[in-house]
Amino acid sequence: MAMTDAPPRPNRPVYLDNQATTRCDPRVVQAMLPYFSEEYGNPHSAEHIMGRTAEAAVETARSRVAALIGAEAREIVFTSGATESNNIAIKGAARFAAGMGDPRRRIVTAATEHKCVLEAVADLAAEGFEPVVLPVRPDGLLDPDALRAALTTPTLLVSVMTVNNETGTIQDIATLARLAKESGALFHTDAAQATGKIPLDLTRWNVDLASVSGHKLYGPKGVGALFVRRRPRVRLLPLLSGGGQERGLRSGTLPAPLIVGLGEACRLAGEEMAAESERIAALRDALLTRLRREIPGIQVNGDPVARIAGNLNLTFPGATAAALMEADPDLCVSTGSACSSAAIEPSYVLRALGLSDGQAERTLRIGIGRFTSAADIDYAALALSAAHATLAAQHPDTL
Questions:
Q1: What is the pTM of this model?
Q2: What would the pLDDT profile of 72-104 be if each residue is shown by its tens digit?
Q3: The one catalytic residue among 24, 116, 332, 339
Q4: Where are the alpha helices (DSSP H) in 100-219?
Q5: Which run of H or of E encompasses 77?
Q6: 266 in catalytic set
Q7: How far is CA 309 from CA 75, 167, 198, in A?
Q8: What domains are there in the chain, each with its CATH number?
């Protein structure tokens, strides 16, 4: 079969969207199951054995999350996911500081942050804070000199994500956090796309706050964590009022089954990350080599070296992303577009890298993960090459 011939349909969809979410590892599911059934105690009911059993499982999970990211167990606060963690970190730090009479109002972030960070920072403008959104370089990296210049004005908080959710670009968090600390600012990072994919050492990097999401590292949806540094102690104003669980920072009954799953996902990642990254990078490179051979002019967005193993953000020369996906509904990839209820607009992340709207519309995000096989890569290479050849021939003016 020629490379541009359409491949036979697979038995099941080929999933290459692991930045959006990952399959819950079967080993994680097995670890969770008892806490849905026979071990169903409330982890806050410490006066009886069922509660204490659940509590012990939660604390084991807390230790496993901490071990993966370079933290202490008592620095881990469980949440519903990275969106909640980001909001607690950013709004909680700002509001606590304001309540204590801190005169600083500047909050600095980057143009390529996840929407929940950008919106959380923007929301604080109504409370008298000054949002500052820094541009990034064409490779997606934040220039340390740009941050250094922004920090010449007294700054309360800096928030920069560790790994970008669209391009897979890895920021130099240790350097950026050091600059923030030297200026006296707190430093927060959204580590949802990094946890379990690259080594993290939040304590050594002088990070104050960091967000984790279970479903990005083969754990369950609906659970995450917030790292809150103890020494020196970082103070936050909680978003929720209630029973004061999680050191008063996140009230509400803890979902023990989900937390157990997050802990198991972190344990597995710690043991398997190095070998897994090597295998995934080989699959990524094989796919890119084949696509470059069949589709001259294909462009990789983001830094070619400072990126996680499983990400390819590709701009195609002769077809839109939407058309490519429509041509092969069995291939699960995603566009570089952000959807709203009214319209699909070109990705603000790609715009921040300097891509035109037309280029952004021709961009696909491919996410390779733990359960991606060589056969999946073969199918993707054949399917995308065949679809692009057909579409480009129909619309040669786009080349």
A1: 0.95
A2: 999 999 999 999 999 999 999 999 999 999 999
A3: 339
A4: 115-123, 144-150, 173-183
A5: strand 76-79
A6: no
A7: 28, 11, 9
A8: 14-24+273-398 (3.90.1150.10), 26-268 (3.40.640.10)
